[in-house]
Design a protein that fits this description.
The chain has 425 residues and is α+β, with helices and mostly antiparallel strands. The chain has helices spanning 3-33, 48-55, 78-81, 84-89, 127-177, 197-240, 246-273, 284-301, 321-338, 390-400; strands at 35-36, 43-44, 61-66, 72-75, 95-98, 106-113, 116-123, 280-283, 306-309, 316-319, 345-350, 354-358, 403-409, 415-421. α7 (246-273) runs parallel beside α10 (390-400) and α8 packs parallel to α9.
């Protein structure tokens, strides 16, 4: 720790010892800059401020301009002119002392310019020039010392901050990956600062409580849906044993809707149970074509015509083929349930990519187009007795695939239900 102060002290002492020399050289340079030797005799035209300073210095500093033979061309004062002979005795470029009666000796510097001798001097009482020079030299030194030091400090500081905050950034990344039902629902406290560890532990405890509550709700939904399947199946079998008639037909329709509601509840429970495995390369055209083929008998049974169009090349996305098929199934079943019998249903796969189901139903009012994709939300204008889960499942599957489920009016009447990928992977 003593090294830098000692170096600075030694440099300061050396600087003070050389300031007289530098000050005199600067003073001589001022005379040279303002000396016009192109005329005879030469003319010295000092700036007003500098000339006034020499005039009122009381010979504490002076200048003399001499011919080669020692003749005085000009001097700052008669006293200075009287020192010409002693000044000529010194060689140009030398520093020397000239005694001063009644005061400190002058410290004198002699140089030549264009054949003329320039002599300048200061006495040791002239402290303002010395002080200014010292300040200037020390400031320059400190600047050169400070810049590398600041650079090193900045590098060390950034390295330290990066090391200090990298565990926090890692914890933030872990927090962003936490999802309900996910495999990893905790934030690691390894490497975190002690001041943040209690907060992380509190957050982990809160996440654990939320996960337990979510798990209870999820299990209840799943168990309830499973428990309902058996009674519904038994009820369906018993209705089939009834004699034909209006009552049996009405009961069969109600049971079919109940069975579909239970099936959709199971679908919702499975979606909520765990994240989808989004690791398949899917050809949308192939998956949609297969789902439509499975639904074709149902459409024919109700007297519907269902057509599908798709590009002649694969339309690839990254995701879960089974979930995409489920979304298409729900869109087609929604069209079958909400459009008049005998009207056509068109299924399209576009290279956008997008999946569109077009019907000729009564359409969806503009103020209801967002709400119908929420769970248990049904349009009040529809005559269907669905549960309002089918389109919610479509919206959830679309969101898991970074797509958007939407509905828009179709030209000529009806609706276009679509799943569109804005930025496909």
């Amino acid at each position: 720790m003593l090294g830098p102060p000692a170096v600075f002290m030694l440099f300061s002492l050396w600087t003070v010892g050389s300031m007289h020399d530098r000050a005199l050289q600067d003073q001589a340079a001022d005379i040279v800059r303002n000396l016009d030797t192109r005329v005879e005799p030469p003319v010295l035209s000092l700036p007003v401020v500098l000339a006034d300073a020499y005039m009122h210095s009381h010979d504490s500093y002076f200048y003399i301009v001499l011919e080669r033979d020692g003749t005085v061309v000009t001097a700052s004062s008669p006293t200075a002119a009287s020192l010409a002979a002693r000044a000529m005795a010194a060689r140009p470029g030398e520093f020397f002392l000239i005694p001063h009666k009644g005061g400190e000796p002058w410290y004198v510097y002699s140089t030549t310019y264009d054949g003329f001798r320039i002599v300048v001097g200061q006495d040791s009482m002239h402290e303002d020039v010395l002080f200014d020079s010292i300040i200037r030299e020390v400031a320059v030194l400190m600047l050169w010392l400070a810049l590398p030091l600041l650079l090193v400090t900045w590098i060390v500081m950034m390295h330290t901050l990066n090391r200090a905050f990298s565990p926090i950034a890692r914890a933030a990344d872990e927090a962003r990956t936490i999802t309900p039902g996910g495999a990893e629902g905790q934030i690691s406290s390894h490497g975190l600062p002690r001041e943040i560890t209690p907060l992380v532990k509190a957050v982990n405890a809160a996440l654990a409580r939320l996960e337990r509550a979510y798990d209870v709700e999820r299990r209840f939904t799943t168990d309830a849906a499973h428990e309902l399947r058996t009674p519904v199946a038994v009820l369906t079998a018993r209705i089939d044993m009834l004699p034909e008639g209006p009552a049996k037909e009405s009961l069969a329709q109600d049971t079919a809707r109940l069975s579909r509601s239970v099936s959709q509840l199971l679908q919702v429970a499975r979606l909520d149970a765990k994240p989808l495995a989004m690791d398949e390369d899917i050809d949308l055209a192939r998956v949609v074509r297969h789902a439509v083929a499975l639904l074709a008998p149902l459409a024919m049974q109700e007297g519907r015509r269902m057509e599908m169009t798709a590009p002649n090349r694969p339309v690839m996305i990254r995701g879960n083929a089974q979930a995409i098929a489920l979304a298409v199934t729900n869109l087609v079943e929604n069209a079958l349930a909400h459009t008049p019998a005998g009207t056509p249903i068109d299924v399209q796969v576009t290279s956008e990519p997008a999946i569109c189901v077009l019907d000729r139903g009564q359409g969806v009012p503009a103020d209801e187009r967002m709400a119908i994709f929420e769970r248990f939300q049904r349009s009040p204008n529809t005559a269907s007795s669905g549960t309002g889960l089918g389109l919610a499942i479509v919206a959830e599957i679309a969101a898991r695939h970074h797509a958007v489920a939407s509905v828009e009016p179709r030209a000529g009447g009806g609706s276009i239900f679509a799943i569109r990928w804005v930025n496909p992977a």
